[in-house]
Specification:
Number of domains: 3
CATH architecture of the largest domain: 3-Layer(aba) Sandwich
Bound molecules: coenzyme A
CATH topology of the largest domain: Aminopeptidase
Structural class: alpha+beta
Shape: globular
Number of helices: 11
Strand order of the largest sheet: 1-2-3-4-5-14-6
Helix content: 25-40%
CATH superfamily of the largest domain: Gcn5-related N-acetyltransferase (GNAT)
Amino acid sequence: MSDVMPLPDEDIPRFADIVSRAYPGFTYSKQSYREETIERLRTMQHEEPSVTFYGLYRDDELLGGMRVHNFCTNVRSTMINAGGVGLVAVDLIHKREHVCKELIEHFLAYCRTTVRPLAMLYPFRPDFYKRMGFGYGPLLNRYSLSPAALPANKQLGGVRYLRPEDKNALVECSRRYVREHHGMVDKSDHEVRQMLTSDDTFIACHWDGEVMDGYAHFRFARGHTSLVNDIEVLEFAYLNKDALRALLSFLNRQSDQVRRIHFNTHDDFLHFVVDDPRDGTDDLLHPISHPTRRSGVGLMYRVVDAQLMFDVLGSARFGPGDCSVKIEPDDSFLPDNTSPVAVTFRNGRASHCKCDVDVTVRLGIAELSSLLMGTVTFSKLRAYGLVGMSDPSYTGVLDAIFRVNEGPQCATSF
Ligand SMILES: CC(C)(COP(=O)(O)OP(=O)(O)OC[C@H]1O[C@@H](n2cnc3c(N)ncnc32)[C@H](O)[C@@H]1OP(=O)(O)O)[C@@H](O)C(=O)NCCC(=O)NCCS
């Protein structure tokens, strides 16, 4: 019998030890690093109201834990509450004893009871969490562009470093960007504090008078000698074309000292801002294609309550096409989440279906999650044999309804 509960302060060191062995890559064995981590966990637990650490106990012994986040996320132009889970860690001695399974079950139950129909995580292995019903989110692209290839514009100024007193302007700029972009998550106080106080990252921001309308959050990455450096852009947000151009021009001006600018972004189109999008490897792909970025599966989404998800998406934006559809989700991990949901799509809005449905579709909860978030299209799921339907002639209509203008972006790591 397990108990999952908020981690009491006195168990933080024990959890830190479990984390140290679960994530050996954190070079955690050093005592100073251990103390720093305990302090970091404590600070987050005490000072960030949107975060709670949980521990799983059997016979009063802590066997594993996780960090749960309360998020507010833009889904198809509507802000909804969502849950995030990170730092899942299980004592090596107790692996394969369903500690993680029970932690995730608890997390998903928490999401349901707190009206967070969407859960998110970054997987250590996508297959592990896909079995638990998490679907692939957007591909993270790492563009490696030459700074000289970025558009320069000597006329454009207005870029300066972020100062501590700019905090409110940064929060407001980020808040506006989140509301304009599907998938983005509101920044927590902790995240903003980290951005403002980090020793090794910098923020160049663009101003339109008193209003910040764009920023690039970046750090340097050392090359093969101390005089060869790259810049890694961790977040790139702009509210208009001028802010974009000015920030790109700022990065272009680093070309005498910086070899490559690596943009980590969910934007699939960034290569359109340059005339030369090559990543510098010259590693030609068959027949003649120039590598411009590396991509990876990262963020994963999971609908934890399909009915609730459509309820909260009442004012969300769907694509054109009128259709009433019965969705039958297959969710072996969360059997409570398998009730059919009948939805009418009309004029880009979803509502409860009060009439006979036109078509019934059956698909796994992971695929439904990706479809709702717009990281896969209905017709692709159909082509891959991942969705069944009572009447295939509705494929095109459903494809248009579930499409998003732009795939989800997310600059929040957790
Ligand atoms: C990865 C890690 C979290 C796994 O923890 P664990 O407690 O050993 O995992 P579990 O025993 O709960 O294994 C998952 C179980 O869920 C089951 N499961 C998964 N999907 C299921 C589904 N849809 N229905 C029923 N059961 C399911 C699996 O079958 C497995 O049980 P089994 O071993 O009996 O087959 C742990 O090894 C760890 O801490 N690793 C290092 C840190 C890390 O990488 N964390 C993850 C960060 S995101």
